[in-house]
Structure formats: C-alpha cells, structure tokens
Amino acid sequence: MLRRLEALGNKLPDPVVLFGLAALTIAALSALLAGWTVPHPAKPELVAVVSLLDGPNLRRVFTEAVRNFAAFPPLASVLVAIMGIGLADRSGLISAVLGRAVAAVPPRLLTLSLLFVGANGAIASDACFVVLVPLGAALWARAGRHPLAGMTIAYAAVSGGYGANLLVTALDPLLAGLTEAAARLVEPGARVSATCNWYFNAASVLVVTGVGALVAPAVERRFGVWSGEGEVETEGVSLVPAGIALLVTVAGLAAVCRGVLYDGTWTPVYDSIVILVAVSAAVPGVVHGVANGLIRNSHDAVRLCSEAVSGMGGYLVLAFAAAQFVAWFNWSNLGLVLAVRGASVIEQSGLGVTPLLCLFVLVSAFLNLIIASASAKWAFMAPLFVPMLMLVGIEPATTQAAYRVGDAVTNILTPLMPYMPIVLATARRYVPSAGQGTILAAQVPFALAWGVAWTALLLFWNWMGWPLGV
Hints:
22 helices; 470 residues; mainly alpha; globular
C-alpha cells in the first residue's frame, strides 16, 4: 500500500502547478455555471456565480495579479515570523536549546521528554526535524537502547506534533490567514487571529506526550536489543546570555503590550502577535550568535536573517499561485454558492456537529497522505470547507482545529514528507538496510493512537463549549 501511495504521490505535479490548474478550473467552472444563484446566508439577496472569462473580469485577472499576491493574508505574516525565528535558528540558539533540553534529562525520562520537546518543536520551524531526529537516535544509542527507536519517537513527536504547541508558531498566522480569507466568503468582516487555536494546541501537547509515551514502549520492542555504540554532540556555548536576553525581551514586550498596545481590549496585542514572536526569537538569537562568534557585527546578523528568508523562495512562488487561486475563487462566488448548496445537503442529511467534525478530520488526514504541505492543503480546503461548515454552525477556528488534527496524525505516515531523506539518512547510519517501510511501519501505532485520542479531545472541547483560543 505504501509503495502504491508513494508512486501516486510522485506522479502529482508540484503544488505550484496544482494551484495553477485549480485556478484555471475555477475560471472554466465560473463560465460554465455563470448565473447559478442561491440565497445569501446573511443578507436578503441572491448570490450568483460570476464568469471570470467575461471581458471586465478577464481584464481583472491581469490587472490585479500583483495586488492579489501582495494582499495574500499569510504572506507578510510568515516572512516576518521567519525573520526572527530564522535568525535564532541560524545563530545556533534553537539547536543548542533543543539539544540541551533533551540531553539533560535522566534516562528513565528520556521518552517522555523527547516527546514533549518534539511536540513543541514547531516553534523552531524546520530546524526541529534537522536537530531532534538525529539527536533522538544518538541519545538512545548512548543509553544502550536501539537508536532507530529513539529516531522513530523523535520523528513521530516532531512531525505528528506539528499541530500542537504551547506557544504560537510561524504556522499559526499562516493557517489563520487562509481561514480568515475563507470565512469572509460568508461574513465579510470575519476576523481569525493567529491565536485562535492556542488553548487547544497547548492541550494537544498533553495528548501527543501522554498517549505517545503509552505507545512508545511497544514500538521500541519492535527494534530489539542494540549492541552498537553512539554518542551525542553537545553545544559548548553557554545559554545563559541568551536566556537573560529572552527574559529581558519578554519583560519589555509585556510592558509594551500593557502600556502601549492595550486600548481597553487585547485585540491590538493579538494583532501584533507575529512581530512579538519575531522579536522574542531574534533578540536572544543575536545574543547567542555574538557569544559563539557567528555574529561579530551588524552585517553578520543581517546576513543570517537574510539566509533564513532566502530559504522561503519556494514559498513565495507557491504564495503567488495560491493568491491567484484564492482571489479567482472569491471573484467567481463559487465558494459561497457551493458552501450554501453543501450546507443544504448537510442539513438534509441530518448529520450533527460531531459526525461532521469526525468526517472532516478523516478527509484532512487522507489528503495529507498525498499532499504533505500543510499550507498548500489548507489553501485548497479552506475556501470550500470553512464557509460550508460556518453555515451549519461550526466556527472557523473549530474547522481549522479539526484540519490540524487530521493533518498532524498522518504527517508521520506519508512517504512524501519532505524530511523523509533526513530520517532515512539517520536510520542508515546505524542500520544500513533500513528503508522507508521500516520507518513508516513503526509510525502506524502512533498515528492510530493519536488519531483517536486527539479527535476525542476536539469533540469533548467542542461539546463543553470551551474557547479554542483567543
């Protein structure tokens, strides 16, 4: 099954091409269904499908292409967040923190600590894959345990835990921006903050850590006894200066939030979350870079920051294609019309909120096996599912949370994960014959256990009526 899935995934074009094809499909459908009307869900008027191939709208496709790109909701947020987090990564701070957080833990708590750090690894963006997966293998080898077990647990926690975190990560504003754009198809003034799933994401860390700790021993037994040797590389630069810098920065930003941003409500603070995260990461990153000699002057700091942003070149190309797709989808009114029709079908089916959320988690999990990029999938799915579920009473933040659950639990099962080469290289360092099947088969117990427990948490949270975030 995995071989067939990998072959199928390899036949898919690049996500940029997929967005281009989707945009062309939208244009063709808008011309075919032009004039199809439905009642507006919030206004006493009809909404009709608009053809994008008519003269004025066709001109709009060309004249507003650059504006669509510049106004694409996730674009600026992601780039600003990456400036700060990327600087901390390039200075070596994130690697040092992750390494020491795990290496300092007693052996009997290794599994629990590795799962916990991995579940919060998304704050370090892609660095968590590069650092924690090899570190997990090395730690297990040093403890006389099979290194592939440590690598498997680390990969499961980092990849599966990408939908959980105690803090706001760079992925949060990206997904929230797409969710907000989709919600405005139904409610033009809708706002979806980057922290809309924060409480639920924090609670999800407990699921990833606790349930993962119950599953890990059974997974580790599959690899048997380890008779080789291994050692852990450690970072020699003190983290004290960076730690002091972080405390001072957080204290200063807290004062700014309370004294400048707060205007009787905390909305300005939530709107500033991206720049706050970027600054909180950048300042300790600069201090750590100075301490280890990577940053000797302002030119070095700017260079490291630029290197981090330059790695987003592929995302910029993807964002341009996605921005056109989202804009065309909005102009055509297809999203709103299909959402109203879909909501009508759902209402007639008699399905309640619980079955709908379960079904959506499954859809998200299945699509993730074929398209590994969380942002690319959500850019496709949000314009259709967010409005559709809004019309049957499910809030955009809840739909986004359900998407993240489904996306996370099959992250560890897809052979199309971009970081699979890192995992394979790590495995073959200890067991030369290890292949993708070795890795993916060991992830199945984690995926099944997290899928059930995480979905149950979402349903319970929704049933209790608790806020998912702020």
